[in-house]
Specification:
Layout lengths: L2 H21 L6 E5 L6 H13 L7 E5 L6 H9 L6 E5 L1 H4 L1 H4 L11 E17 L7 H10 L5 E5 L4 H13 L4 E5 L3 H10 L4 E5 L4 H5 L3 E6 L28 E9 L4 H16 L1 H10 L2 E6 H24 L6
Parallel strand pairs: 1-2, 1-3, 5-6, 5-7
Antiparallel strand pairs: 3-9, 4-7, 4-8, 4-9, 4-10
Helix pairs in contact: 2-10
Length: 328
């Protein structure tokens, strides 16, 4: 047998092996990377959706928390994974906006992954401890104007989404807060709020649902234009009374992704599996209970949506840099 024939035989064998693997997918448990700490909102939502989704599969889906670098550490592991659907990940705002804008992961862009579906969206909100003297957003803003840099507000990472939300709030109202950064973790924000390290935090209401439901915290405002049914006592920003009309709607989302070059039929099966879980009464009722908005976009639509969202926010962030409000 010649060397050329040997190479041809190896190539054919590899092709048959890949084809068989695709036809048999999934043939072992699926690893689901959550690039954030356990106990946060993203972690809870992905675990819930994956637990329901695996009921339609002959294998299990197990969540692994891979923290660090505003989701960059988890993204790096996804990029290095085999494109066979056996390793997938959940990505959020920072994965699509913060990391590429700040070039935190050289060589990374959205072409390095294939999007399966967007499953939820969550507006940012401001939450305070139950015993806080601030009863409304206007109270908080007035206090921050009276004593600039005295009110401590916890965010998730400098330059990340919650930081951008707070910077825009300051820009539009003239208030000045003392910004306290936590490493991409709603769990750390929870602890800080409870132990008095901060006076308020910026993150989604869903991230803090257990504290709000137990009466340990109160939401002052959600940066949305619609009332959150899960938190009827927290007004959307469009219904708040402030001295300056606020035009500020910000939040995150959860998108399930696979490595680039994952075959179409594998993406389709993963999409169908998650869509069935998404449509289930169990998942829909649970989302309503924790105050998270269901926001399905399938594989055909979510990539364009992500590209459009990225460009829009890049433009906003570049303008803030030009104004000296944000550092890149």
């Amino acid at each position: 047998m010649t060397f050329k024939k040997t190479l041809l035989g190896i190539a054919c064998l590899a092709s048959l092996t890949v084809g068989t693997a695709q036809a048999d997918f999934p043939n072992r448990d699926i690893r689901v990377i959550v690039p954030a700490a356990a106990g946060g909102g993203t972690d809870a939502i992905v675990r819930k959706a994956s637990n329901i989704a695996e009921e339609s599969l002959p294998v299990s889906m197990y969540v692994e928390n891979v923290e660090g670098g505003m989701t960059a550490t988890g993204l790096l592991q996804l990029m290095k994974a085999r494109p066979d659907g056996q390793t997938i990940a959940a990505i959020t705002y920072d994965s699509i906006i913060t990391i590429p804008w700040k070039n935190m992961l050289p060589g990374f862009d959205m072409d390095k992954m294939r999007m399966i579906a967007r499953i939820t969206s969550e507006a940012d909100a401001i939450t305070v401890p139950e015993n806080s003297p601030y009863k409304t957003l206007d109270d908080l803003i007035a206090a921050a104007k009276e004593k600039p840099n005295s009110i401590r507000v916890g965010i998730q990472n400098m330059g990340a989404r919650t930081h951008l939300t707070l910077l825009q709030l300051q820009e539009q109202t003239g208030a000045k807060f003392k910004i306290v950064s936590y490493d991409n973790s709603a769990a750390s924000q929870k602890e800080a709020l409870l132990n008095g390290e901060v006076d308020a935090v910026v993150t989604s209401l869903g991230d803090l649902a257990p504290l709000i439901e137990s009466g340990q915290a109160r939401g002052l405002v959600e940066f949305s234009d619609t009332q959150n049914e899960g938190f009827p006592n927290v007004p959307p920003v469009t219904e708040t009374e402030t001295d300056t009309g606020l035009d500020l709607q910000m939040g995150s989302f959860i998108i399930m992704v696979a490595p680039a070059r994952t075959p179409d039929d594998v993406i389709e099966k993963l999409e169908a599996t998650y869509h069935k879980a998404y449509e289930s009464d169990e998942f829909q009722q649970w989302l309503k209970q924790i105050g998270v908005t269901p926001a399905w976009l399938g594989a055909d639509d979510v990539t364009q949506w992500a590209n459009d969202t990225q460009q829009q926010l890049f433009n906003t962030m570049d303008e803030l840099v030009d104004q000296g409000v944000l550092e890149k």
